[in-house]
Structures are given as C-alpha cells and as structure tokens.
Design brief:
elongated, 6 helices, 14-stranded antiparallel barrel, mainly beta
C-alpha cells in the first residue's frame, strides 16, 4: 500500500512514500488493443490504411482517406480469466464486462480541384475511443509457514514513536495490537504473530475502470497521394481498486486461557483514481503506387493531472478479543508525463480484394516522468529509469473480400515488455472477424483473445506469485456512410 499525505482539518500531514508510484505511471501509460470491430479484427494494423475511426488514435492521417461522411458505434463483451500460482497453489478468477468502446463521427468535405487546387479535401472527425480496460479480479491463496504481512508492519514501525507511524499501515497495526511497543521503549516493537507459524494466507483484488480518449481530428489530402492529419486527444482515467490480505492461523494447540493468542487478521485498502490529460498526434500516409502505402505518425507525451483518494482498515482477532482500526481518507495529486511514440506502417492491397498491413510502434517507458507540487517524487522517477526500458509493439492484419458485400479478417498484435531485462512480460493478441456491407450500411464483428503473464508480490518479504491473464472479447460495430 502506498504511503501518502492525509488532509485533516486543512492540515497536511506528511507520510513516507514507498516508491510504488512507478507502477501507477506504467499502468496509466500503457494502452491495449481496443477500437472498432474491423480495427480489432485486423490486429489494429491501420497505420498506413486509414479509413477507420480507431485508426485516428494511431495515425490521424487516416481521416483524410475518407471520401464520404460516416457515423459508427461499437459494443463489446469481455470475459477475463486470471490464474494465479502462489506456494504451488493455483486459483482461477473470472470477471465479465460490457462497454461501448467507441462512438465516432467523420465529416468528409471534398472540394472541386478546379477551384481549390491539389489540396482537394478538408475532413474532420470527433468521437471517443477506449484505450485500456482495467477490469480484473485476482485471487491468491496458499497455506504457508514462511512469511507474514505482520513482519512488514513490524519492520517498518521500528524506530518510530506511535504518533509518527504511517497512518494507513503501521498505525492500524499498532491500534489493533498486531504490533505493540516493548515495555519502557516506545520506539521498539514486537508482534504476537510468528511468521513461521502455519497459516492460510489470501489476497483478493477487484480492479475496475477504463482509460478513454475524446478526440478531434483534422486532415487533408494532396492529389490523393499524400494524406496528412492531426489529432488533439483528451484522455481521461477512472480506476478503482479494492484489495484485501488476510491471514488465518492454524494452531491445534492454542491455549484458550491465553488472550494473546492471535487467530487472524485482515487488512483492506481502497484506492480511487481519476485523471485527465492532453496530447497531440501528427501523421501522414503516402500512396507509393496503386497498391502500396506507407504511414508515419508521432505522438507527443500525454500530460496527465491525476487525483487519488485512498483509505485502509485492519481487523485483528485474538482468542478473546477483536480489534478494528480504520484510517481517514487520504488525498494525493500528481502529474504524469507519458512517453513519446513513433510509428511506421506499410500496407499492400492485392487487386482491391485483399489487404496485408503491418505497424511498428516504438516507445521508451524509461522516459515516464512524475511530478507533484507537494512532495518530491525523485525516488519514483529513479525507479522508472531502473525498472523500465524501450518497448516495441507490432501489429499485423489482413482482410480478404470473399464477396462484394462480405469480408473476412484476421490479425495479430505483440506488445513488448516495458520492463528492463524482462522480455517475457509481453502481451500477445490474436483476432479474427468479418464485415457486411449493404449499400451505405455496415456491420462488423471481431473476436479477440489476449494473453499475458506477470509476477506479483503481496508485500516486500513475500515471494513472487505468477499471474496469467487471458481476455476473450467480442466486439460489434454498426454504422452508415452518407
């Protein structure tokens, strides 16, 4: 759990920060494959194709490809399976979510070349796209006799008087007698918990929220060969997390006359995050010949302003007593700057019946930067340069028109690991779908599966648990051209 500031009666009380903000910086900077059904079914490889609303989040020059106006919206259903392994105990958690991932309007304005010259259009787009989904349920469980969260509280408390303990962690442990001072020394602590005792330990986490972006895009075309565009993005973040760590002690020889025999304790934490930002995207698409296209785009860092609220509670059960302590509500505001992005794309159209498209995206997660008006986050920024590195993302997609009104599609996306020296922590996405066109109306669908592996530590002294996440998603997009 992070250590923050607590605002009580307008008095700002400083708490130590334990250097976990680099995790938040990464979470709110990453993006996954989201968009219209056609975009997703082709793995998001639209950087040199354009003509799709979701492509404008990657290469805004895609708006200039339109020769008619369009309105579209999407609906998706996601099923997320999270498998964990901790002390050789496997647990499976399942979560489901519905959402409207995008809503788009494109206005195509074609001019008479005899009146306006070689720049023959000025197109405009407005809408929003989902960029990432934070919904996930994680459950970790094991019987073990090697470590305890109580030891963390104990070690962090040593040397501090009770009135100076962290308000969200160690003070709660002190108030519930999970730790206590040694008689005659108010800065030295002991715990009734033996970390080597046999216990049932569990971790439960519910995450929810999304990262979305409202966008305005403008573009023009030169001689129908060079397409250029600019997107102004206004992303916003909503993220909530409830987590619980519980330990239930297994002791068949408990002395029922000893009131200091601890039976269990449960630590809850709540985090609510909201934020908004702004960025600029510039791009071009060049039609090398009738079949071959090249795309290039650059994204400025997103400047986020983020607000957090948080609280925690601890309940300790002894043989004959139960103690409970709850923190107040904490607040912390900070700024986040995400990495630059550079994209190169190429696509080939086979006799207007098939498409093969490839996108390459480069970004450096070590360039993430955090800043706060109230506290120095230099330690977190040092952690960013230590833990994170350059990542390469690749998207490949294809489409085959089997009938003038129906097409089949497939795609693959690879999101490289942002962690320095840990290339295995990547995300792979497989997708397929199809689309129906009847006059000016269209209906597309996509089936998408993403897979990634990660590691997670419940607290500093705990060994890593492995987490495998598989997300299955079905997306439908409907719209019409006019």
């Amino acid at each position: 759990m992070k250590k923050y500031f607590l605002l009580i009666s307008s008095v700002l009380i400083s708490q130590f920060i334990n250097g976990q903000y680099h995790i938040d910086a990464l979470r709110f900077s990453k993006e996954t494959l989201n968009g219209t059904a056609r975009f997703m079914s082709m793995g998001g490889a639209f950087g040199s194709l354009g003509g799709n609303p979701s492509a404008l989040n990657f290469n805004p020059a895609g708006v200039s490809v339109y020769t008619s106006s369009e309105f579209s919206f999407s609906f998706d259903f996601s099923d997320i399976e999270t498998s964990t392994k901790f002390h050789n105990t496997n647990v499976l958690s399942v979560d489901s979510k519905n959402s409207i991932p995008n809503l788009n309007y494109i206005s195509a304005n074609i001019f008479d070349p005899n009146e306006f010259g070689d720049w023959n259009r000025l197109n405009f787009a407005i809408g929003y796209n989902k960029l990432d989904d934070y919904n996930e349920t994680t459950y970790i469980l094991a019987n073990q006799n090697e470590h305890s969260l109580a030891s963390n509280f104990l070690n962090n408390a040593q040397g501090y008087y009770p009135e100076n303990l962290n308000l969200f962690n160690e003070l709660l442990a002190f108030n519930t007698y999970l730790i206590d001072t040694i008689s005659g020394n108010n800065s030295t602590y002991f715990s009734y918990v033996d970390p080597l005792s046999e216990k049932n330990q569990s971790y439960y986490s519910i995450k929810s929220g999304q990262k979305n972006e409202f966008y305005l895009t403008f573009g023009s075309a030169y001689k129908d060969k060079l397409f250029m565009g600019m997107t102004i993005g206004f992303p916003w973040i909503q993220f909530n997390q409830f987590s619980n760590i519980s330990e239930y002690f297994i002791n068949d020889s408990v002395d029922s006359t000893n009131s200091n025999n601890i039976e269990s304790f449960s630590y809850n934490s709540n985090l609510w995050v909201s934020g908004s930002g702004i960025n600029l995207k510039l791009g071009l698409i060049y039609q090398i010949d009738e079949n071959l296209r090249y795309g290039f785009a650059i994204h400025t860092p997103t400047a986020f302003q983020i607000q957090e609220e948080f609280s925690s509670r601890l309940i300790t059960s002894f043989q004959n007593n139960i103690f409970e302590s709850e923190s107040g509500l904490g607040f912390f505001d900070y700024d986040l700057s995400t990495p630059f992005k550079i994209m190169n794309s190429v696509s080939y159209i086979f006799d207007k019946k098939a498409i093969l498209s490839i996108d390459y995206e480069y970004l450096d997660y070590s360039s993430l930067n955090l800043n706060s008006d109230f506290y120095s986050l230099s330690e977190s920024n040092q952690d960013i340069t230590y833990y994170y590195s350059v990542a390469s993302n690749i998207r490949i997609g294809g489409e085959f028109r089997i009938h003038p009104q129906f097409s089949l599609r497939g795609g693959y996306a690879y999101y490289g690991s942002p962690f320095l020296g840990m290339s295995e922590r990547n995300i792979e996405v497989f997708s397929f779908g199809g689309g129906l066109r009847i006059n000016q109306y269209f209906l597309d669908f996509a089936v998408v599966n993403s897979f990634n592996e990660d590691i997670f530590s419940l607290y500093n002294s705990a060994p890593n648990s492995s987490i495998t996440t598989s997300k299955n998603q079905i997306t439908w997009t409907a719209g019409f051209k006019f």
